[in-house]
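request received
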Amino acid sequence: MKRNLYIGSTLAMLLVALGIGQGILEKKADAQAKSNTIMVPRFEVDPTFPKPLPNHWYQGMSIGVGVDANDHIWIVHRPDSVNANEAAEDAKTGTCCQKAPPILEFDQQGTLLRHWGGSDGEGYQWPASNHGITIDHKGNVWIGGNGGGDGMVLKFTQDGKFLMMVGKKGVPIDSNSQDHFGMVAKISVDKKENEAYISDGYGNKRVVVIDADSGTFKRYWGAYGNKPDDTNLGRYNPDAPVAQQFRTPVHCAEMSVDRLVYVCDRVNDRIQVFTPDGKFVKEAWVSKRTLGDGSTWDIAFSNDPQQKFIFLADGKDEKVWILDRQSLEILTSFGDGGKQPGQFYAVHSIATDSKGNIYTTETYDGRRLQRFLYKGMQSVTKGEDQGTVWPTKATK
Amino acid sequence: MKRAVCIGGHLLALLVVVGMPVLLDIGPVVLAPSAFVTLGAQAKAAAPTVEVDPLWPKPFPQKKAWILGSVTGVTVDVQDHVWVVHRGVDSLQANEKGPTLEPWASSCCFAAPQILQFDTAGTLLASWDPKTGSGYDWPVNPSGIAVDDKGNVWVGSGLPTPSLAAAGRGRGPAPAAGAAPGAARGAAGAPAAGGRGVTPAAAAPPADAQVLKFDKTGKFLLQIGKAGKTDGSDSPTGFNRPGALAVDSAANELYVADGFGNHRVAVFDATTGAFKRSWGAYGGKPTDTDSGAYDPNAASSKQFHTLSCVKIAKDGMVYVCDRQNDRIQVFQKDGTFVKEAVVSKTTTGDGSVWDVAFSNDPQQRVLFVADGHDKKVWMLDRGSLETLGSFGDGGRYPGRFYGVGSVAVDSKGNVYTGETYEGKRVQKFVNRGR
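response:
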């Protein structure tokens, strides 16, 4: 009897122990799953944005997008990339189409407003290959250029009236030049100090800071804050020791609300973060094994007060990565290769508006502006690739 | 007659342009997108109103990372399934095929299988990659697709000879355009073979000179002609880039547009592949004389110049796209010439008449004409061949076109298009009636 009892209680204890163990295991798994579930902004492509261009205008490689204070969307594209078959009307071989002017402004409805640019004017030369567009806090429009000899940035009013040229055309590559640039990819402007940050560029390997009104050179730096040099680094190798210089192109330099400058070292697949005076803070790789054109093409910050997220355009892997801005960890991604809405070919530039919507442009044979509507927060498994983000009701 | 068609076309083009801002002032409609509407004239045989469905077809399964190459054929079978053939990996730019490069360069993308079957909702039903099959010569450039009433799938082959205007296609000819990505690539040290341009087909032997028949699962059934063995316009066994075909299921006959190299329509027994008859422009004897570049002001050519479609209407009329002569010629099944019409007569370059499809009404009163050079789909009254209207314009957005070379219509009257070159899409235009 006693013995039986003993056995019984042992068995019971064993069962209890097993039960507890099971409970602990479940809790552990649960916690793990929870820690992998994160909240990120959700987007849906707007497949009917923008409205068709008038006049049989045809959009070429689209290598810049910016949003102004009125939430108007400005893009810059390369009319000369529209080939003879596409611009058959210009070539007088058919009824469609004509090359659209390079600078195009759209309102929130996607209607084309102002359009201009493409030729030299009094006091300035248009770039051989215009590149990057930013509308600064004063409402002025900045563009760079990455064609051969493009050594300048240009500033215009929104009506296309010329304001300033910094640097000049027809100059050699020199990452230590104090008076010109080497094929500038993009400009961003810091309202507080009224300074322009130049992503310089396709020829040079540096970030340059100039006075946004006078154009005076103030400072510049290379990767890790090093003095830049023009040594050819050869091809990017993800297994080699990390490069101590940027590889061309230096493709973006964007300042966050807490005054950190995020630089796209595109072919090195990395983002480097600096103080405004060029002191290196931290770095992170995105899709580190991506070769060729690289993965870190352009970034935009989320529009919450803290700018918690970075949206990063990766024109080689054809997606937009969403990163935690502080930790630089990859949280999720969306997009996929293809020609349909929400898909990309060579997604090159990215910007956000005041409502949190994302705009992208595609170069090469993508040649589109796309809008991704912000749809609030959603939970995803950390690292989840969302693929093509179509309107949810349509995909049901 | 020709003149009337031409004038009509211009007038309508004008109306479409003028009407656009009003028609398009609908705002972004996400769930039932109705932008990019176009409209036929108020003329006699009213053309349908169509609206692009920007969310058709559905994306390929995400994990596959598939993309379409240049689309060279679209057709709808008797079950209303949409079949597509495209040029696959050979038409992809280096940046579109990162994971196939050595070394691996990026996660995007792989060419989708070259034969694809969708339902009208845009769901991929089936696909197969004939490149991997054996017992037949898969073309360097598959072109044209037809599905007969038994469900057999027919594919032609070949690329048109590029026109002068087309020489720069796929990449910008201007130094500025080339310089920028070139600079990026050079400095980036991207794979040297990474030219983004399309690989020139001319460099790739053997020459396309065959048509193929498969069952609907991709099982090989028949080949007429032989890869690399081009033959002239009088050949009973060979072709020169036969880029389009159609099947008369009742008569069990295959019609081949032969084609991009030759100057004839050739008819074969659809089971044995035995040659039956052929004819050239106006039903004459086809020859291999080069008729030279199209001149809109010259007398009409007695020779076909880039034959890019053959389609058979329910009433037995055979429609032929004489692409670089900007004209449609209509024949009886025995090759007797019936009539012709010129579409967008001043178009040179790659020509205006790339493919045709018939409307879904019993009389097939409307003829849809894919015009890859003018980047639109014309709608013609099939009886008179007068232009009723057109839709589309140039660009990469939904409802716009680049290299629209294929058109097909389902039983509900919805229109499907395929784009070659760097268009690389299939689009659906929903029929909204008149």
